[in-house]
Amino acid sequence: MRIGIVCYPTFGGSGVLATELGKALADEGHEVHFITYQQPVRLNVFNANIFYHEVRVPTYPLFDYPPYEVALASTMVDVIINHDLDLLHVHYAIPHASAAYMAKQIVKKKNGRDVPVITTLHGTDITLVGRDKTYEPVVTFSINESDAITAVSQNLKDETYKSFAITKEIDVIHNFVDVARFNKKPIDAFRKVIAPAGEKILVHASNFRKVKRVDDVINVFDAVRKEMPAKLLMVGDGPERHTAEEMARALGREEDIRFLGKQEQMEDILAVSDVFLLPSEYESFGLAALEAMAARAVVISTNAGGLSEINIQGKTGYMSDVGDVAAMSRYTIELLKDDNKLAAMKEAAYEQACRFDIKNIIPVYEKLYSRFCRMDTCSR
């Protein structure tokens, strides 16, 4: 099949999922066309079946805000027609689903083809941005006009029905992880640089927005550090990074906390970690947690959103209420003081991640695509 994938090209979960999906589909022999404003961060390999189409937005003095959605729809039309795409798979409702609807209508008018559009909902496009009255009518309309709708967790599906007047069935296709990529032997030299005295290593990775509650990460680590030697790696960047760095200095923990910024080789970092901290206010699924589990890190998280669909309390990790730093600290300290328990939970976390291996999820997407494939192209 010839598949167009529209996504944000950033480090966020929707962009990561869409890029990894496209790469896996290309490995299966499908022709995949990425359509976005810059090359996705994880599109870092050459594959003869992968094509990238940059959305160029002209700038004119007339526009205070360049009309990206219009440029995106026009690029979709161009790629659909010139590369004879079988379908569009758009990730994140805003503005991709509405732009895809526009492109679909234009293609239908130009050459009579009715190109199927599949929309995958990822989280804040529904739980935050989409609920804004400015966007809600367009979000509702464009989701309902999609030929198929998927959500990355049961929780997100439920939230979508609760918040929007959706009249179509939403299929749950969970996020996935490439277990083979993250299941790797730790680099001893790397671990010794971070923890030269054999300290336990904790990790947090996010876009450092308020919803991620990075201040809770720092406070949990401070409690752990009072009980034992430990190091914390803060991976990512965003508006709350400065606050977190200030907290680390105020607590006197700056020597034990490393702010690494954005990193593409997360598998090397997670491989040397013992615990992954994720105290978010909400996670539609928790892809970062799943990647950590695939690397045999135990997840200490909140029980918000879809996290309970992957993190099993007392088996693969521990969950607590949002903001309950005391509980998260207690769980982490107890775990790090018991090497046998830590080892057992690391293995359980890995086994749980294997349930969401990319090899198990890709066929589900292929089955979905086949519902809309033209008879003369299904075997392409």
Flag low-confidence runs.
Answer: none
* Estimated helix fraction: 40-55%
What spatial form do the alpha-carbon principal axes imply? elongated
Q: What is the radius of gyration computed over CA atoms, rounded to a whole number of angstroms?
A: 22 Å
Strand content: 15-25%
Q: Give, in spatial order, the strands making up the sheet with the most strands.
A: 3-2-1-4-5-6-7
Helix and strand sequence: EHEEHEHEHHEHEHHEHEHEHEHEEHHH
Mind explaining what this structure looks like?
There is one protein chain. The chain has 380 residues and is of the alpha/beta class. The chain has 15 helices and 13 strands. The protein has helices at residues 13-27, 68-83, 93-111, 124-127, 136-144, 154-163, 179-182, 188-194, 214-227, 241-250, 266-271, 287-294, 325-336, 339-354, 358-370; strands at 2-6, 31-36, 50-54, 87-91, 117-121, 148-151, 170-172, 200-206, 230-236, 257-261, 275-278, 298-302, 317-320.
Task: Please name the defining characteristics of this protein.
single chain; 380 residues; 15 helices; alpha/beta
Task: Briefly say what this structure is.
The protein is of the alpha/beta class and 380 residues long.
Topology:
Layout: E1 2-6, H1 13-27, E2 31-36, E3 50-54, H2 68-83, E4 87-91, H3 93-111, E5 117-121, H4 124-127, H5 136-144, E6 148-151, H6 154-163, E7 170-172, H7 179-182, H8 188-194, E8 200-206, H9 214-227, E9 230-236, H10 241-250, E10 257-261, H11 266-271, E11 275-278, H12 287-294, E12 298-302, E13 317-320, H13 325-336, H14 339-354, H15 358-370
Parallel strand pairs: 1-2, 1-4, 2-3, 4-5, 5-6, 6-7, 8-9, 8-11, 9-10, 11-12, 12-13
